[in-house]
């Protein structure tokens, strides 16, 4: 799926699953409306709210030159009650 890179599983994101909120990293150039459309179309759910913040890239030294990795955007997607994204809450082995 274009735009969504991968799901995030941190302590906070696991806690947010109880409130029907899912966390994922997306491409930094994607807009909220694009991500909302992709999630509703791909997973067949109804999105009621989206929060996002941009995370900074990490610094990388290449000899005397200091570079950095690309920054990315993290989205917290809230679904309507009764909807869930089953592929994200299954236990991975």
Q: Any descriptors?
A:
Ribosomal_uL23/eL15/eS24_sf, ribosomal protein, 6 strands, 4-stranded antiparallel beta sheet, ribonucleoprotein, alpha+beta, chloroplast, Nucleotide-bd_a/b_plait_sf, 3 helices
Secondary structure layout:
Elements: E1 4-7, H1 11-16, E2 21-26, H2 32-43, E3 47-55, E4 59-62, E5 65-68, E6 72-79, H3 86-89
Antiparallel strand pairs: 1-2, 2-6, 3-6, 4-5
Report the average pLDDT across residues. Answer: 85
Q: Output the helix-strand order.
A: EHEHEEEEH
Give the helix level as a range of percent.
Answer: 10-25%
As a whole number of angstroms, the C-alpha radius of gyration is 15 Å
Could you state the CATH homologous superfamily?
RRM (RNA recognition motif) domain
What's the architecture, going by CATH? 2-Layer Sandwich
Beta fraction = 35-45%
What is the CATH topology descriptor?
Alpha-Beta Plaits
Largest sheet: 4 strands, antiparallel
Question: What separation lies between the terminal Cα atoms?
Answer: 23 Å
Number of helices: 3
Number of domains: 1
Strand order of the biggest β-sheet: 1-2-6-3
The oligomeric state of the chains shown is single chain
Family: Belongs to the universal ribosomal protein uL23 family.
Main location: plastid
Pfam families: Ribosomal_L23
InterPro entries: Nucleotide-bd_a/b_plait_sf (IPR012677), Ribosomal_uL23-like (IPR013025), Ribosomal_uL23/eL15/eS24_sf (IPR012678), Ribosomal_uL23_CS (IPR001014)
């Amino acid at each position: 799926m274009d735009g969504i890179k991968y799901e995030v599983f941190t302590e906070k994101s696991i806690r947010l699953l109880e409130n029907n909120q899912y966390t994922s990293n997306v491409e930094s150039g994607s807009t909220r409306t694009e991500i909302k459309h992709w999630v509703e179309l791909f997973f067949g759910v109804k999105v009621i709210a989206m929060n996002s913040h941009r995370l900074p890239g990490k610094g990388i030294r290449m000899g005397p030159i200091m570079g950095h990795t690309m920054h990315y955007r993290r989205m917290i997607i809230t679904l309507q009650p009764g909807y869930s994204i089953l592929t994200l809450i299954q236990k991975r082995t």
